[in-house]
TrEMBL record:
Gene3D superfamilies: P-loop containing nucleotide triphosphate hydrolases (3.40.50.300). The chain crosses the membrane at residues 42-62. It is a single-pass type II membrane protein. GO terms for molecular function: sulfotransferase activity. It comes from the Eukaryota. The keyword Isomerase does not apply. The keyword Secreted does not apply. This is Uronyl 2-sulfotransferase a. InterPro entries: Heparan_SO4_2-O-STrfase (IPR007734), P-loop_NTPase (IPR027417), Sulfotransferase (IPR005331).
Amino acid sequence: MMKNFSSSPLHSNNQTPNHIRERNIRKYGLLSAIPLRLSLRGYGFCMATLFLFCFGSLFYQLNGGPPKILLDIRQYLGESTYLDDHGPPAPRVLPFPSQVVYNRVGKCGSRTVVILLRLLAEKHQFNLVSSDIHNKTRLTKHEQVDLMKNISNIPQPFLYTRHVHFLNFTRFRIEEPVYINIIRDPINRFLSNYFFRRFGDWRGEQNHLIRTPGMKDDERYLDINVCILENYPECSNPRVFYIIPYFCGQHPQCRYVKSFYAFACQKHFAILDIGQKNADISHSLPRKTALFSFSFIPFISHREPGVWALERAKQNVLENYLLVGILEELEDVLLLLERLLPHYFTGVLNIYKSPDYRKMGNMTGTVRKHTPTLEALQVLYHRMRYEYEFYNFIRDQFHLMKKKIGLKSGSHPSVYSPAFLRELALRTPEPLDEDEDLDTDLEDANSWLVHP
């Protein structure tokens, strides 16, 4: 007879209570282990997600984000931000930033602003610290930390100026100051620097010999068209990739990356500059490798600096700069600074427009400056196309700020496309341009400054 293993009432009634209890324990223990196992996995997933979120938030805080004082000023101006809709109401009084950094770009009117600041610091009683270092814009990590700590230790309120690429204070857990800056048309800036290094300005025919004593005559009198068209180092990248790094920062990708190629041959390899790509490479290889076959490999592919550095520079401007003006509209820049930073710049436009100050400024115009040929300008514009994209971005942001403040734009018709090459006339006014001889200029200015 076949045995009945089904759970019939007869069969169930024959089971003892202990057997029933053990079976129920196994049954419900198995079922209860499943949700427990799932809950442990879910708990681990949630903890991992939370850790990544916290780490990402900390990373963002350490690497950027607008300082609170800058957000407060933007709220005061009525700029549309997340805080306008979800945060506290905009302040009724313009916030006062007690820490301002002007990481001035060379040949963009910095001497004009620095001399004005020296006069204003004496008038308004704020601390002005102007660095005497003009040729070290890129710093090591330790140099960055030391400089930022020194800046933070200046008695407040202060305004610090130096030729230096953007410093990310929050990355090193140091309070971020408010940044300001001024740039100019990239080709005009380049031409001004080119001729100033060679021939100086109207203050003296021999002052250029003091600044560049080691420059030979063949270099000093080198025709700028030859320099551009024959790709001399001074007229090509990385030398003309100049403005963007001031706003991009200290990251290696903010600088021009020169391309080169490596020719690998078993354990030996030779590196050639991109200019030698079509050269006879057999002369560049070690003698021991001549018998072996080698292959051409791009050791570091040609990566023209542009997109990454440009976008980082734009982001830093939007997040950390109160104002970046353009030299072509310098009076409007000074007026905006007077509106946005009244504790520092009140009265700056009156000083700048005074006849004595204008007379002093006219003595610093670069001499012997002339416009290159159209062909040379086209080549130079192509090399500086990322500089012009950044310049156009700054110009648009500057005009938006003027509109927000209520100033009518006094800008000239757009000259920032390749069409400008046919009409380039070096119209940019020549204020004080470099940072040498500041003490002498200040003595002249103090002779007519009226103290309260």
